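Internal ticket #5521
Category: modeling
Description: The requester needs a full-assembly model to guide mutagenesis choices. All entity lines are attached below as received. Residue total reported by intake: 737.
Assigned to: D.W.
Attached entities:
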Amino acid sequence: MELLSVRSLNKSYGAHVALRDFDLSVGQGLIFGLLGPNGAGKTTLIRIVNQIIEQDSGQILIKGQPLKMRHVRNIGYLPEERGLYKAMKVKEQLLYFGQIKGLKKQDAKERITAWLDKLDLSRWKENRIQDLSKGMAQKVQFIATVLHQPDLLILDEPFSGFDPVNAEIIKNEILELKRQGTTIIFSTHRMESVELLCDHIALINQAQKILDGPVKTIKNESKTNRFRVKMIRNEDGNAVPWGNMEQKEGYEEFTTDLNGRQPNTLLTELMEYGEILGFEEIIPSIEEIFIQKVNESHVR
Amino acid sequence: MSGKIFLVIKREYLARVKKRSFLLATLITPLIFPTILGLFLWIALSDTSTETRKLIEVVDENNAYFLESNEMYTFSYGELSPEEAKNLVQEGKRFGFLYVPELNLERPQGITFYSEETPALSMISSLEASLKQKIEEFRLFASGIDPAVLSSLKTNVNIQSVIVGEPGGERVSNSVVNYAVGFIAGILIYTFIFVYGNQIMQGVIEEKSSRIIEILVSSLKPFQLMMGKILGIGAVGLTQFLIWIVLISAISSLVMGYFGMTMPQQQMLEMSGQQELFPDTGQEGLMEMVQLVQGIDFFQLTLTFLIYFIGGYMLYGAFFAAIGAAVDSPSDAQQFMFPVTIPLLIAYMGLFIFVLDDPNSRVSYWLSIIPFTSPVAMMGRVSFGVPWHQLALSIGLLVAGFLSTTWMAGKIYRIGILVHGTKVGYKVLWKWLKDNG
């Protein structure tokens, strides 16, 4: 079932078009990646979904119903430019956000304690935000976003500002939330960062969606049927006829098409020429797919 | 939803009251006035006791003007020539030299004082007064009147003003006390509006620039957030004000008590010689002061002060919130401060030029009725007594005033708080005001 659908959404700032006839469907319980360069329109879309700004035209539905303020209360939103009250203590701040989001004081307190433990922040609960490192403040912000257990979590550039260790911790928490049934929308311009995390992605460029689908499908459709081969040629062996061999340290590497054969057939044929060290299909990264699609749309 | 506005108020209040700077400002500010007062008293007291008397050479061509030495000055009549006397001053053997030429009693001219340093104004006037008295005595003799007779005819008139028709009976009033009360109350409100208005603005800018607003806006209406902030910070101001009242009265009475014990004993000895000059001081004067202070209706004063304090703060606070929402950083706020600063400044200047001078003039009336100036101006009038229907009109307009500024501010705030990177001018603000979306 679709949790969120966006139908022919338009938004302009003066002469600048931020979103043009934008459609989107986000299925329940998925991790959905909203990918595109800076200024593509991602944040505008998110802000409209959060009712921070209004669309010029178009419709937004939550579980089939037109979006209302009460729906927005069930969204957890982590804005790209993070903000907390700098002079407030960690615990007080989380309690304030929790209560504003409608949690009872006691519930909020229990959840805060649990989350602070989980993210290893318990020692800092009485410290002011201004005394924390950037990474710790980011974790506090993450807790503030998820504390009220929203059905939909919208994270704008969630990993920016995190070191690899903390990014991994947050990634695991996101996966845990997904297991609990939360739908998560990621927005990022760093496409490699979410490739492995997302079930479904939409690529946005210049106010328009240029590609949309499950990650696996997109990748399969983008297959080039080319393989990369690493091998050590037999001492007296001939050169492989299907590609330009490139000399590496202790082995040679080349790429080749299947040319109508099955991979196994190709592999068997290759084995006659020497010892195969590596044999893998070349699958373009999301970023490569994006660049390819952008180029195609320009040609059109 | 109303529970949430309370949460905002509570946060704004506690976030400020718990700060160390609040504690410091609250504790130190009331200490400033008594400390300065105490310092001056101390200097004044130690001044007279340590300083040596000044020696002044007098050359009197008339041989008639003998000035009596006192605790400040000793007059020496060395029968010197003016040149010799000048030399004594230059050599530092005399503080100064007073030259009295042969005087025409009808038109005394040419009296000169020579000194190395510029003499104090009080010294010159005291010399002038002594000489004037002598000359007048000579002239009285010349016209055949005994100065003793004239002195016995002199009377001291002191007008006591009484306001009639006040509920609770007539009360004694005194312009000086009323002036002081109006002055302090007016300035307090003026300062309060600026200091706490700025805090509102800073707070709004913080929420806007840090995007906290984007997290809150899904759970709270912008208007609730704005009102919560204005009310929360206002409560901080009231708390601070109440603490000050308690502290100032406690410390002032301590300081005054301390000097009150030591001062009369010292001063009384010094003043004993001049006692006959002030026959009215003493018990009677004290009684009069007590009566005057009792004449001030503290309940009414405090009540009106609180009303105008809160009303004025709310009226301008809404403006400060709107400005904060319209800009991206404090430095951008300057361009919008003008319409806030000008009416406040008019109120402030009006307080001194018109209201305290003549509380019942037409200008004073209008200044105390128009909501933009009334919080400051009315406080200048209240202690002099204001007819209740004027008070009611003024307060009514003030309430209407802050309701409308809050409404306007709400419209600007609602849009401005979420707009970034746009150059906002008055034109844009006007567009937001008209926007009904």
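Resolution: model delivered.
Comment from assignee: The two ends of chain B are 21 Å apart (CA to CA).
Ticket closed.
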